[in-house]
Amino acid sequence: MWEVICFVFSKLLFFYLVYWIWSLLFFIMPVFHIRNSFKPGIKRVAGIWTIAHRGGPREGLENTIPTFKKALDNGIQVLEMDIRLTKDKRPVVCHDENLQRLCGVDKKIQDFTYSQLPKLQEKVEIHFSSLTYQTTEEDDRQIPLLEDVMKAFPNTPFNMELKVNDQELKVEVLKLIRKYKREQLTIWGSVDEQHCLTCRAMAPEIPTFTPAAVVKKIFFYFFLGFLPFYNIPYDTFQFPFPNQEYINYTKKYVGTSPYHKLYLLILQIYNALGLFIFFHLRRRGIYVFYYSLNKVQDMDTATGKYVDGIITDSPSVLVDYANKKDD
Fold first, then answer.
1. CB-based contacts of 150: which residues, under 8 Å, 6+ apart?
2. Measured between alpha carbons, how far is 304 from 241 in angstroms, rounded to an integer?
3. 150, 176 in Cβ contact below 8 A?
4. Of 50, 46, 43, which is closest to residue 311 (Cα–Cα)?
5. 123-125 and 158-162: which strand pairing?
6. Diameter of the chain measured on Cα atoms
7. With helix as H, strand as E and coil as C, how does 269-298 read?
8. For the residues of 181-193, what is the DSSP string, one character each?
9. How far is CA 79 from CA 68, 126, 164, in A?
10. What is the DSSP code (8-state) at residue 65?
11. Where does the protein end up (predicted)?
């Protein structure tokens, strides 16, 4: 009996070692599920693409055309934005479902037709910080239509998050992407996995980003050695940088429950292992973006971890950092 147990154990150990050897080999030199769909045709600065989160809410009124223009004038290369649908089925660029923070109105954006939408407030609380933005004469307090943003910046790459799992929203956004021939100038998706899969099924030629559930799977499969064999059907991997600003933000909006503490712990471990995970993802043709970084120290840390892009609320700070590093 003991000999049988030893024999079985030795065989299992052998197969286990062989599995990990192959896993390590394909982790370093991946050959499965290679992607390379996103080709924006823009030159990197200091090895990265510079991306303005909502246009840069620390330097302008978030998700508005003047703020997007200001970011591009400062040298930003990609605009990140959030898309929702109004009552009359028009895609607009707006992050929040409830308009209390942005407009001072305790109603949802889908309760209004576009012409009924209230103006943005003169003072707007900035996410991921304790700051508020005070509008100036340069700001436009109108929530913009996505179509108007596309018209204003026809050659600029967009990173768009569809904020609700609504088929009508996906259909309307896709119509605009195709109308303005932005298939290779747009990344779209959602934190919801099914939402992202639907986007990919509707338009496989348009790059997508990894939803939250897939980010968790990548972390889990990395420890199991299964990551090199796991099909990631997305083109960009976008991950939060766990600085103090982000930690404070999640405490405010998620709370300090045991789940939140576990989430932060996993985030810290993920970040510590980022050098290895991001290396593998990039070898598979998946671009890696870190968000939202606003301090030079954090940007320095990020650029040392095989990232392709940095998403920021402070476009001028990021562009200045990248230009100096590129000299």
1. 158, 176, 180, 182
2. 13
3. yes
4. 50
5. unpaired
6. 85
7. HHHHCHHHHHHHHHHCCCEEEEECCCCHHH
8. T-TTSEEEE-SSH
9. 7, 17, 20
10. H
11. Membrane
DSSP label at residue 235: S
Quote the CA–CA distance of 113 and 117 in Å, as a whole number: 7
Tokens standing for residue 235: 């083109």
The identity of residue 64, as a single letter, is T
- How far, in Å, are 57, 77, 147, 287 from residue 42 at the CA level? 24, 8, 23, 14
Give phi and psi for 68, each to the nearest 5.
Answer: -60, -45
pLDDT 10s per residue in the chain (327 long)? 677 677 666 767 778 788 888 899 999 999 888 876 667 777 888 889 999 999 999 999 999 999 999 999 999 999 999 999 999 999 999 999 999 999 999 999 999 999 999 999 999 999 988 899 999 999 999 999 999 999 999 999 999 999 988 899 999 999 999 999 999 999 999 999 999 999 999 999 999 999 988 998 999 999 999 999 999 999 999 999 988 888 887 776 666 677 777 778 888 888 888 889 999 999 999 999 999 999 999 999 988 888 999 999 999 999 999 999 887
Give kind and range of the element (H or E) at residue 132.
strand 132-134
